[in-house]
Amino acid sequence: MYFYNSLTKKKEEFKPLTPGHINLYTCGVTVYDDCHIGHARSLYIFDCLKRYLEYRGFRVKFVRNITDVDDKIIDRARKENEGEPLIDTVKMVTQRYIERYYEDMEALGIERADIEPKATDNISGMIAHIEGLLAKGFAYVTESGVYFSVRKFSDYGRLSGQGIAQMQSGTRIEPDEAKQDPLDFALWKKSKPNEPSWPSPWGEGRPGWHIECSVMSAKYLGVETLDIHAGGRDLIFPHHENEIAQSEALTGKPFARYWLHHGLLAVEGRKMAKSLGNFVTVRDFSKRQYPIDALKLFFLQAHYSQTLDFSWERIDEKRSALETIMTFLSRVRQKQEDEEFFTKPCKDTKCSPEWLCAEVQKAKNDFLAALDDDFNTPQAQAALFEIINACNKALYDIGYTREYLPALLYAQGIVLELGGILGLSLSGGHAAIPEPQIKMSIEMRDKLKKQKQYEEADKIRRELEIKGIILEDTKDGTKWR
After folding, report:
1. pLDDT by residue (tens digit) across 326-382?
2. Pairing relation of β-strands 185-190 and 205-207?
3. Is there a single domain that holds both residue 455 and residue 362?
4. What burial letters (b/e) apply to 371-390, b meaning 16+ CB within 10 Å?
């Protein structure tokens, strides 16, 4: 298994420190607003990564933090503050968006990390870490807080591939007259009036953003060197660079052995971001009545490290691709009891049940090889559809006897197995919906179409599709499967 390591700038064979065990940490959300689908891509990619590592037999301990104290949260609380103390409003904001974050996770079908610690539950550990850096001479105290001295850490810039001079000229640095160097970053910020704060040796205040991940990853994974640290490419500098500096300065050990970074989700070439107003929340997406699996197939079409441009047209394409998978699964289920279907003579003497099983096994091997090669999901997705293409050749093109049934059922099982690795639900849903209810929905849709209420008719089709019911308009009327 190989991953591209952002730290070494090359693809490397993955070998965890402890054979068979993996410590995985990713940066989580800052809870001041609803998650958009750019966040969903990050959450989904690393959910799939964990699933695959476990499929390969590793025991994975996965930690993802929640930032619940931050300038953005305080700004949001100020906007919502209507006579209430700011501290109380901050608590209400964070609690609300933590709850909505988990609701979004459930809607996406993404599993929670093993541990999802909150920053505010770990203040004492952050204070202890800062005290250690001060004792070693890597930090200093000012009137506004405590800062890390970047120039005292000789490897600073290794992850981002930048030198000190390049950082100063090409990066917007937050000004602070109390800092000794513009590149130095805050470990502890002294509190402003009415803001959330905690007692510390340097006065009332709160931690800087970067210190959170260093402290919580080490505490909850129980190690000083992580196997994998993952996150978005936009976090490489300064966040991940600062994590490395403040962690290795204290421990003297490598902070993480493998750094994996995903590309951003873009809209017309620009990063999807709340600050730009070009975002689609997970809730907005759900309101459009698209299956979540269609969004996941959209994410899978690009390598995790690449930027992916979002459009509703591309989601439509992936909804059609999902229909292909669901139609195949439904077709196999139906044909188990369809005696007439299995009496057709085989038209292609080159095809056989053995041929079909071999094609399925080859595609499965290709799928696993793709994920072993830096988690190449586009190739893995292509291999998944190769299975369906081979089966559809048997189902639609060649005609055959009932002896093909075991091969088709084998293929069906492999599709569900590999889809599970990718976090696809592929839920049929037929058993959960009474047939009379399906027929009633079809009749209502037909009526709306006759009345030229096409948008409402399409809404019914999408609602059924989400539940695994595929409608097909034919010259003999609407069929469902």
Report:
1. 988 888 877 766 655 554 555 555 678 888 899 999 999 999 999 999 999 999 999
2. antiparallel
3. no
4. bbebbbbeebbbbbbbbbeb
Same domain flag for 370 and 222: no
Report in angstroms the alpha-carbon separations of 59 from 21, 24, 65: 5, 11, 20
pLDDT exceeds 50 at position 430: no
| SS3 of residue 56 by DSSP | coil
d(CA 345, CA 399): 6
* pLDDT tens column, 254-269: 999 999 999 999 987 8
> Rounded to 5 degrees, what angle do the CA atoms 14, 15, 16 make?
120
Full-model pTM: 0.86
From residue 214, how far is each of 111, 186, 224 by CA, in Å? 23, 14, 9
Distance of alpha carbon 44 from alpha carbon 42, whole angstroms: 5
Q: What's the total number of domains in the chain?
A: 3
Residue 469 CA to residue 428 CA, distance in Å, equals: 7
Q: Omega before 238 cis (within 30°)?
A: yes
Q: Are residues 357 and 405 in the same domain?
A: yes
d(Cα 216, Cα 68) in Å, to the nearest integer? 13
- 55 & 8 share domain: yes
* C-alpha–C-alpha distance, residues 160 and 261, integer Å: 12
